[in-house]
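User: I'm putting together notes for a lab meeting next week and I want to include a structural view of one of the chains we've been expressing. I don't have a solved structure, so I'd like a prediction I can at least talk through. The sequence is below, exactly as it appears in our construct file.
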Amino acid sequence: MKAFQLHGSGFDNFRLEDCPAPTLRPGHAIVRVRAVSLNYRDLAIIKGDMTLPVQWPVIPGSDFSGEIVEIDDPDGHFQVGDRVSAHYVQGWRDGRRGRPIPVRISACPVPACLPS
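Assistant: Thanks for the context. Below is the predicted structure for the 116-residue chain, given as structure tokens.
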């Protein structure tokens, strides 16, 4: 797999590198990423403005969409081939921070990894 990884703050610290393919964990999905957007959180990490500690390298791409290629969903809500979208604040429906939406499964093991 290939991933754009950030090795420190600043746009000059992006590198396209080989990375290990993710392994399926219980209650998670592996998603073939088809589209990624860099949101404000990603920009804060890149610019060095993140208020929380950052452990380098980072693969930015808090918001993405793609399709499930492997899944462990005991409730059967998702299956291989489903198109999914994930984002950093999963309970945020609109501009107002409201009551969280229940999330049954995480679909974000390794954002921005692409098949090599």
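A couple of points you could mention at the meeting. The longest strand covers residues 29-37. Residues 10 and 47 are 5 Å apart (CA to CA).

User: Perfect, that's what I needed.
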